[in-house]
Each structure stands twice: as structure tokens, then as C-alpha cells.
Specification:
The protein has about 375 residues and is of the alpha/beta class. About 40% of the residues lie in helices and about 20% in strands. Bound molecules: beta-D-galactopyranose. One of its GO terms (molecular function) is carbohydrate binding.
Amino acid sequence: MRARTTRLAGIALAAGLGLASLAACGSSDNSSSNSGSTSGAAAGGGKKIALLLPESKTTRYETFDKPYFEEALKAACPDCTLIYSNANQDAAKQQQQAESALTQGANVLVLDPVDGKAAASVVASAKSSNVPVIAYDRFIEGANFYVSFDNAAVGKLQATTLVDVMKKNGKTSGDIVMINGSPTDPNAADFKAGAHSVIDSSGFKVAAEYDTPDWSPDKAQSWMEGQISAVKANLTGVYAANDGTAGGAIAALKGGGVNPLPPVTGQDAELAAIQRILVGDQAMTVYKPIKPEAEAAAKAAVALANGQTPEKTTDFKGVPATILDPIAVVKDNVKDTVVKDGIYQVSEICTGEVAAACTEAGIS
Ligand code: GAL
């Protein structure tokens, strides 16, 4: 990940706004301890773009979305200013962060909502100030633009891979448990619906299902722990909606003495998940290349800030949109996906007990 250490401008925000920060494009400083300039205006009078991300337990946001967005914004508009915040799964905090961005004169909000429905009030308040809103990754009704992946396709990829692996394990029937995402995340509903569209006609039965509050890996783990004695005998697979919940489920299964582990799905191609896939603890993940997603959002933000119409590939629920394709990752294509795209270095993946698995998978 590229990092620029020179701070071009920065302003500390009021306490209580979490990781909120305002900095000229190119600065990657998001701490609230910025000092120095009291003016957030970029040189040349460029526009102010606010990026509001939902959480930091899922590694994508701080590791990929934020820096890729920052980089793309700098390329598309060198004198634009980025106002950045992360709500740490708190919808009320995100609302404050959005209000704060509007108060600071944001020209566009790029919002990945903690709570898709609650975000409607942010859109209303932005609209009353004539500020367009881009729904980033998660859909928001009434947004001016939407950038995401095909989320139903994510669920279908997860479930199709799960069913294939269970069949390869010699099973044609048996129980699946489903650990879905957060009930406030509209994507979670799409992942779940996409997965059900495959599982429900697969011959396998959903024995128990859980919507994980806040996508919390800990809550996924405790729920799975509570299910083990009831489902253990006939458990053939675990649908986990992302890599965080997959990690929780796998810890619970191991702790509960389930051996061999049933295949477990995931999403986000997190480093820990790629390692679990290589050593055989997790069956798959879904790789969603964040760079093109962040680039599409940054370009759309600059267009909207200048009163132009962003380039779209489609319409989604009446909102002009760019929708990208997700990719399933299993042991056999780790090399041709996340390694080839330089998402992780081989040296980051192939540590400790993973080294032998890397050699076996031809990753060196
Ligand atoms: C979804 C997002 C996923 C995953 C999850 C947990 O909305 O599309 O990539 O990160 O949230 O935050």
C-alpha cells in the first residue's frame, strides 16, 4: 500500500467523531491529532469530498477502500480535499460524521452506510444543502449514484462453491448452517437471498440461520458455539457471509471438537482467510477488487462535485450505478487472483504453517 507521509493540510475535528479527519488529497493521516493549519480549503479552491466508511473490524475499509479512494481522488482532482471518517459500526456516530462533513462544506458525500435505512435521513439532509450523495458499496434509497459489486452474485458464488465442495466430499444431502451479515446492511440481505437461491434447491437443508449483528466475528463465534451440539451429527457445510464471521465460525467448530471441519465460506479475501484457505480450514472467499470500486466512486464524486453526470454502467433500483463483478477464490486460484493482482505479497501470505501449503499450491 502506498503511503505519503507529507501532510499537505490537516485539521483536527471535534472529539467524539471517531476517526474523522480532513486533509488535502494525498495525505493518509486520519488521526484526530492532526495539528497545524486551521484551514481545510485545498489550494486552488478544489472541491471537498467526504468519504464515510462504516467499520474497521472488516479489514477492507482501512486497508484498501480508504487508501485506494484517496489515491484515485488525488489522480482525478489534485486540488480536491478529502474529509474522511469511519463510524466503527455506530449508525448514530455516522450520522454525526455526515452532518459534520456537511458543516465543513463537503460538496459530495460518498457514504457506505452502517444502516442503509437510517441513511435516508443523511440523504435528505444532504439534499436540503444541495449536496449529492454517492452510495458506496451499500445501496441507499434516493442516492444520486451507486457504486458496488453484484451482491446477489456474491451470495450465489458462495453457495455454489459450498455445494460443489460438499458434493466433492461425497455428500448429496445433510445440514448447512447459515451465518449471515448484519441486519442493518442492505448488502447482507442480497448475499443471503443469492445464497438461498442456490442452497434451497440443492438437496441440502438449512438447519439453523443467524443474522450477525454488526458483522461481529465474536457474535458469529458465540452463535456457532451454541449450535454445535444440536447440529454436529449431520453438519455438512457452513455458509458464513464474510471472512470475519467465517473466522468466528471456524474457531467455534475447532473449539467444539468438530473434526474434520465442514467446508466454510467467506467474503472479502482477507489475508487471514487466504491463509485459512491454503491450509484447508476455509473452503472459499469472495474477492472483490476494491481498487476499481474506489476509483469509480472517486471519479463519480469529482463529476458530481462539478455539476457533471458521472459515467454509469447500469441503473440499480432507479439509481445510476457502476456494478462490478465478484470473483470466487479457492485454494487453486489464490495465485491467479490476489497474488497476481498484488493484493498481498507472497511473503505476507506464506508465513509459519502456511509456507508448506503455499509450496503445494505453487505459490512462491
Ligand atoms: C458488506 C460489504 C462486505 C463486507 C461486509 C462487512 O456490506 O460489501 O465487503 O465487508 O459489509 O463490513
